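Form 7-S
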Amino acid sequence: MVDNIFFMLYRSVKNILGYQPPSVPPPFVLDEHRPYDSPKVANQQPDKEKALEAFSSLLRYAHRLEGFIDKLATVLRSKTWDKEAAEIKLEITALDKQLSQLTPVLLRYDQSITAPKVQRLSTSIEENRRTVETIYQLPRNNDIMLRDFSIAGNPRVKAFAVFIEGMVDSKLLDNSVLQPLMLFNYSRELYEGNFTEQIVRECLPSNQIKRSDTFASIETAVNSGSTAIIFDGIDEAIIVGTGAWEHRGVERSQIEQSVQGSQAAFSENFRINTGLVRSMLRTSDLIIETIKVGTRSQINCALMYIDSIANTTLVDEVRRRIQGIATDYLGDTGELIQFIEDHPSIPFPQSLSTERPDRVAGHLVEGRIAILLEGNPFVHIVPVSFFSFFHSAEDFSHKPTVVNFMRILRLLGAFVSIILPSIYIAISYFHQDALPTELLLAIAGSRENVTFPAWFEIVLMEFSFELIREAGIRVPGFLGSSIGIVGALILGQAAVYANIVSPIIVIIVASTGLASFCIPDYRMASAIRLLRFILLAFAATFGLVGLATAFLWIAVLFCQMKSFGVPYMTPVVPKTIAGYDVVLRGPIFQQDTRPDALNVKDQRRQPNISRTWKKINQGKSDKP
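Output:
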């Protein structure tokens, strides 16, 4: 028994002091080596591998030539030259083109190209298939489909289709692409003229077809949901639009809600969104240009404007900025705007974001430009002024008197949201004599048991209010609004009872928060909330003098800002023809001209007397 205890202690000490191999694998540590720091490109093949690939291409061409010679000898022996003449002629043309592509100069040029997608198609279907497999890294990519088939005709031609599973409409691909090519019989030879042109005209019923001879355009189309068809012996492919992936349909507007007017909102589908704008503006002058943005993932970006109204210089400038974006991926219109706007470091928005097609149509008629990004339900309008952010979607659905009252209320709400906490701090610290004695005593009495200074109370409550606002947005469903209401009530009441803040501070912060909700544009409201903290710092440091200085700085900033060449404070600074829809809105039948600052081609939107029925009635009443 003693020996056993001794040996047990001995083994325990040995296990503690002696080395033992780890029972678990070492933790993963990411290597700090960055491939792009190397002078060689990451996907650049060594010279030996490139030479081997060129030699393999020549060897495959030799095997193909050998097979053609054997086939030609068989045809000559069997005396069926007339039946096989078309096929032999096609094969000779293909071999001749492939030989010209395998010259030493072109092979050396292809070796210097690091990306296969910048190469042109070959007449050999085997070479084209290997290039497609290299571009999409097959067979590692499981959703890239290569469908081999033969085209019915005289003679039959081998081909294969490239598409991405999950991004194409299977029924459309089967019925409009594969079935016409595989099952239809042609009494005449297919290769009398241009092969791909004849296939497009006589075989494919789809209305979205184009031809291409580069792998780069094929890759872009396939990544967008199209199907590429590559033929044997032809150095040109056919791209058929078969894209149909799952997406959200047209629904009610969730952010820009309105009691009257259109209720439709944009979705994530690119063509549905452009179609919604087309349905609002049924004119051939509406131009929708499609620009590819993103170097790795090329996303469609639509530039929408009315050609007979929009300023040509403005359109060219917006197009130039979008085409000048060099980045891998853009997934949101807000990211796109940050790349092209004049002042990206200033928090105030310089484009109007909307999810409503009717607002987009209204701004296009004024001569502005709309920017839409594929996969994003928000459209940005450029250029805009500061006053554009206080217009709502249903302003034109009500009488001018009601609309003007609401617009003034929104501007006053924005002003109160910015200045109310700063005014309280400035007066409490530096200008107590500006308040009536009774009000001053009431404020002092409410703060009698509060130990923190007033500026700390304001910052604490503002920060708490922002936390509640953010939590209400992030919590899903109706629970978010409930948390916001209950959290604000409980937090405010508990803070007052605990003598952390005074009741007057709760009233000021609550009024400020309510006033900020009057601003229709979310991005403008966010910028104003950020500006509120800056004004608090100026007011707590210098009082009303600091507050006035901060407002002067803001005025200078706004006056020097531009939204795509248009002054931000137009028509106030610089002075232009204001019209009847800036701060106040006049009657709809008196808005005869478009905004003067846009310098549009057609300045008038309606005649001086747009209610012609009144003029006609007046003329009838004058008759005896």
